[in-house]
Amino acid sequence: MPVSLLWAVDVYGRVYSLSTRGQQWEQCRDAVLEFKRVTAVQQCCWGIACDHHIYLNVHSSDVPIRYQEETFENQRWNPLDNFSDRLLPSDRWQWSNITGLEHQPLDSFFLPSSNWEWEGDWYIDENFGGEPTEKEGWTYAIDFPATYTKDKKWNSCVRRRRWIRYRRYKATDTWAKIPSEGHSGPLPDPFNDISCGGWEISEEPRGRLSLWAVSLQGKVWFREGIHHHSPEGDGWEEVSLPGEVVQISCGPGDLVWAVLWEGQLIVREGITRDCPRGSSWVVVDSPNPEAGAIHVAVGDNVVWAVTKDNKVWYRRGINSYNPRGSGWIGMIGEMVMINVGLNDQVWGISCEDRAVYFRQGVTSSELSGKAWKAVNVPRDGDIRSHSSASSSSLHSAGCFFSGEVRAQSVMSEDSDTKNGPQRAVLEEASLREADAKSPPLTHLAVGPAGVRGDAADTCSLSSVATYTLCQEEPYGADEHPLWAWVSGGGCGVDCHSQLNWFNSATALSSSVQSMSLSISPAQTAAWRKQIFEQLSERSKREMDNFKHYEQAIEQSVWVKKGTMQWWRDWKPHKWVDVRFALEQFSGPEGNQDGILFLYYNFNEEKKYLHAFINEVTILVPVLNDSKHTFAIYTAERTKQRWPIRLAAATELEMHDWLALLSVSCCDSRGIQGPPSKQALWSVTCKGDVFVCEPSPSLETCPYPTPCDQMFWHQVGGHLRLVESNSLGVVWGVGYDHTVWVYTGGYGGGFLQGLARSTDNIYTQTDVKCVYIYENQRWNPVTGYTNRGLPTDRYMWSDATGLQECTKANTKPPSPHWTWVADWAIDYGISGGTDREGWQYAADFPTSYHGHKTLKDFVRRRRWARKCKLTTTGPWQEVPPIPLSDVTIIPCGAQSIVEPIPLWAISNKGDVLCRLGVTLLTPAGTSWLHVGTDQPFKSISIGGASQVWAIARDGSAFYRGSVTAQSPSGDCWYHIPSPVRQKLQQVSVGRTSVYTVDQHGNLWFRQGLTPSCPQGSSWEHISNNVRKVSVGPLDQVWIIADKVQGSHSLSCGTVCHRLGVQPMEPKGQSWDYGIGPTHVTGSRHT
Residue 590: pLDDT above 90? Predict the structure, then answer.
């Protein structure tokens, strides 16, 4: 579960945040004003201060918020001046935008507010369509509206070049004031309520937010232009109302509800991607006509309300098609206010004791939950004061100050937050008088570590509402805070989350822990690993001396039998009922081995197939809509591309067989424990993770181990790609761009039931999108309809058009996946779309574009639906930045504390360098942002810290001067791509650089020398390549797109380049193996 924050405001106007992994409220120290209420999302928090102005607190990130300003310099050629700024009257301005319709000189660009700063001065962009231009960056055309090229021709009459300048948002982790100005000037009255949401409106572009605010006069305002590159927005726009509003709530999607002054509620309708403000309001009656509503809170599919008598109500029947719902249901409990967060989780503030309560039992099937439970954690000041008291009690029963004995209070473990509102507010005069009489407390050192505790924690506050405030802590030593507002819009909690918020003894346990020896998790992991290695070495050392003795029991045999179905090898191919048996035995030398038997009937004759366990090369779960199937490969069947395919009666039975067969295969080959540091890692197209222990003869010349004889065994987890090095550091990226680091375990998934594979296993989640296509053909009578030609594809199909896929019959990839969202139009498809999501083409097999022309007779649009997988594996999440690619130096560190270079690309295309990655801390400590002129999509680091990257436009770049002292280097060098090719992926070894282009061609960079690390030219090696991975000794592994076997065709096959030597770095031929979709051989040495 990613770390997220719950925000709250107490009655004194102080803002606090509570982490989902924390056990105390952390005060926002930057707040110089008292706040009335806040509304939070994952990336920021908005608030209304006591001056009725709106403030924004953007969470700091290792990736800064940067915005690229651009303008174009235009020139025309004439016989006298050659190219100059003397343009024709009908031409565009000398300085303009890309369309030429707006005048944009360099001095017309200003910072939006004082919260921004310029990164540097204007400079010329020398990249054009993925290829470098001349030094001055000019591109040429026959006229301004025509197509530009980087080469000057005889008919080039105009030219232009692009100027770039970046500005950076600097006001992070601080409250920045938002101007109260609309498009027509200052707003007439200040604000009283605020709500933020709307990041899931019908596939809204990533980072978009909707901010709604209510003024003191009951008017509603909408903040426009809030997105990732403009967190403050552009301005306020008033929204018409049927009455005066007192409070408003906006959910993550298209739900917006508000409370009228009379106690009725109104619902905003017509909220879409193109109109986030909506179009109209609909009135909904209060749950209790005698006691009108005073508060409303909405989520994805829920609406909660509070009436004037503090009763809580739940609105049933809420969905995207019916935002008004169907009726109210009264709930138990009395609250002052309610807030709905992510996953429709609910928080509230009780009217009895002003404590924050969490609604337990909220699931997708039971959105109303089951019960309220108090969030009982201390504030950060409480921890320190109780730590001081606990330390003092170790010295004596009391502390002596000026001859007096004062008993130190320790928080009781049996303290209860439900004792009623017996929380006195101390008067300012009495506290000052007490402070004048009492000398300051002294520090007490405990133990050799010198742990010290402060006796008190003070802060300065001003008066809010009717509370009398003082210069010291407003709460007593044993009093609980009084909360006024809570916001969970950025708090990612679900029904499976393990929270530490409900332990009343947190403060005491924290104070005790503060005096204990501090041992980091990394040190604990290293200690356990060292013990395991020492025990393994001792066991081998003592057992090897007695191998020549005769065993008391020469061998033992046991058999496991079962019934399955088998996909018959010959025609007619069909599922056949068979008996399946595993016979396992131990030989004279103590080694484990076994045989698989498959008994079937053919023409009323009993026959069988068999396979030796030590010949099995891989066991692969196979996705099937109706059966629980898996495949068994041997070396011979890998060559044929024709495995033994079996189907179990239940999913549990399939997992039992897979676990048993996997352990048996590993035992027969002497593989035990976690993968070695030199293991090869790969992932299948379904996300399963496999490892292979390389044999010493894998790279032996001239007879290396064939790829089809390599044994791969599964490791728990689910990943889209995996990257490793020869030191044992392994990182992975999921389909939802979440980053995971390997913990050193070797279980999880279907292996989670094995007792020996439970160490370092954690819960892992992944989210992916399932896509289907809606196809239509044009006819002169009705226009575009779903009536196609007899030869056309299905009107609802997959990407190929060969398989019918409707919204109703399309299921998640496997039973492990569950839907977490409804079908929605995908506007982010390559090629662009129109306002309704359609793409047009002359016919279905041709390329698509986002605008209609006279020659377009067909159109399609893509629908997407998210599904979620929950599994287990030896992986821990690395928050908080989602990544699209990651690379680790193949080798380098010689000690456990020496840094290991690791680079990555975020899902937005930012280049990042990870700091603090060592053998003890493989997850690292922080990210260092490396500036680029455009988003990137692939990156690789090789020997001598060579960093190569591919931009999204297909151009290649080399990062110069990357060293241990300067881990991020100094500048990017643009490397020309192969002629008329756009590159997709890059991999760097010790002295070799390989790339793959968009057409599946593999290229080798020639001329790489220490004096010329950029190389000289590209040489074509092979086609039919998806991915490439180069090892520390320049070994080359690829994923081939399609490989023909003797029986069938396989897609995504692991191939090893043979004949790679220092004098022959390109190798000679390919050796074919199994078929994942991503492989990393950079750990193999």
Answer: no
